[in-house]
Write a structure and sequence with these properties.
Blueprint lengths: L4 E5 H12 L7 E2 L1 E2 L1 H5 L3 H11 L3 E4 L2 H11 L4 E4 L8 H6 L3 E4 L2 H10 L6 E3 L11 H13 L5 E2 L11 H14 L6 E4 L1 H6 L7 E2 L18 E13 L4 E2 L5 E2 L4 E7 L15 E4 L2 E6 L6 E5 L9 E5 L5 H8 L3 H6 L6 E5 L4
Parallel strand pairs: 1-19, 2-10, 3-4, 4-5, 5-6, 6-7, 7-8, 8-9, 9-10
Antiparallel strand pairs: 1-11, 11-14, 11-18, 12-13, 14-17, 15-16, 16-17
């Protein structure tokens, strides 16, 4: 096989959902955010595993993702669309029973006129200044919006991955004031908010990144293993360069393995000369620049020529790899390219 293999442990994803679900009271529903193709891991298998684990509400970024999700899980579970009801979304929202989280008066008007009586939710801006109705806008239309019987009112925390950040308490207070006496289920927290404590849980939590084995959920089970095939090995003499720009020069006789993966596959260029791969438990440094389809790795210390090396494994989490690339686990996961062969274990796979 000439492309990498991304192995996804569906049982680990389900276990992470159960663990996060257990952190809130039995009266709090735990949804599952599976936008961006389930954070790069494959929305169909992941959604089915989570539904089997007990998830009954799912969330996506845009209506097109909702269509793919509905195709995967069938009728029944609720699907929230964070972008709301955009122009051109009406048929998908109506035909596929999606619930748009309306972000503005404009969206509310569009939804009511196009799909009267169809389920909806409301998204409020509690201080992040990204999506949702701001306090003044919400105060002006609240009485009208509540007559539409929204299924959920939600907002999103800006700094939940920093537990001591004062913004968390500010948003908690603001959101609490905005949803007071509405009689509508409300939701403020994704993974980070769940970890902040019960006062942030409200009626529903919406974990995302924690399901997929990444921070800030430190207790998460690892979910993904990424193995890259070795195409060729070569011997270098002292002074010979590797890769574009000659950014790495051999300081002694060196054995180099060229692997089939590059920035087209989500191994971003910033990890050049920084990342580490593993031959079983033995670390092997990535040397030279990451190119579009290839990376080069120093395997001089190995007593064998490996057929493949692992870049995500028990020895290196997605957050470890992200740190080497100067980014976050979210970006690493969602950048995983379409060329990998995805294999699923557990979860009835």
């Amino acid at each position: 096989m000439s492309t990498g293999t991304l192995t996804v442990d569906l049982d680990a994803i389900a276990a992470n959902w159960r663990a996060l679900d257990a952190m809130s009271a039995a009266t709090v529903e735990t949804a599952a955010t599976i936008k961006a193709d389930a954070y790069g891991l494959g929305v169909g298998p992941v959604a089915r595993a989570l539904a089997q684990a007990g998830a009954r509400t799912f969330a996506v970024a845009v209506a097109e993702e909702g269509a793919a999700l509905r195709d995967a899980i069938g009728p029944g579970p609720a699907i929230l669309v964070y972008s709301g009801h955009m122009a051109g979304d009406t048929d998908m929202i109506g035909d596929l029973d999606l619930t748009p989280m309306l972000n503005s008066v404009e969206q509310m008007t569009r939804h009511v006129e196009a799909l009267p009586g169809h389920p909806l939710g409301i998204q409020l801006d509690s201080g992040m200044n990204r999506l949702g109705m701001e306090p003044e806008e919400w105060a002006a239309v609240r009485h009208i919006a509540l007559r539409l019987k929204p299924k959920l009112i939600m907002s999103h925390l800006a700094c939940a991955d920093e537990p001591d950040h004062p913004m968390n308490a500010q948003q908690l207070q603001q959101f609490g004031e905005m949803v007071a006496d509405t009689g509508v289920p409300s939701s403020l927290s994704a993974t980070g908010g769940i970890l902040l404590g019960s006062q942030y849980h409200f009626d529903m939590t919406r974990p995302g990144i924690g399901l997929y084995g990444a921070l800030p959920f430190e207790a998460a089970q690892p979910v993904a293993r990424l193995s890259l095939p070795v195409i060729q090995t070569r011997e270098l003499e002292e002074g010979e360069p590797v890769g574009y720009g000659n950014t790495w020069i051999a300081e002694a006789s060196t054995r180099i393995a060229t692997l089939s993966a590059g920035y087209a596959d989500g191994l971003i260029r910033a990890m050049s000369n920084q990342a580490v791969l593993f031959a079983d438990d033995e670390p092997c440094p990535l040397v030279g620049r990451v190119s579009m389809d290839l990376i080069t790795v120093d395997i001089s210390h190995l007593d064998r020529e490996p057929r493949q090396l692992d870049i995500l494994c028990s020895k290196q989490s997605v957050d470890d790899l992200a740190e080497a690339a100067g980014t976050i686990g979210y970006e690493m996961l969602t950048s995983l390219g379409a060329r990998y062969t995805r294999r699923y274990t557990g979860g009835g796979a």
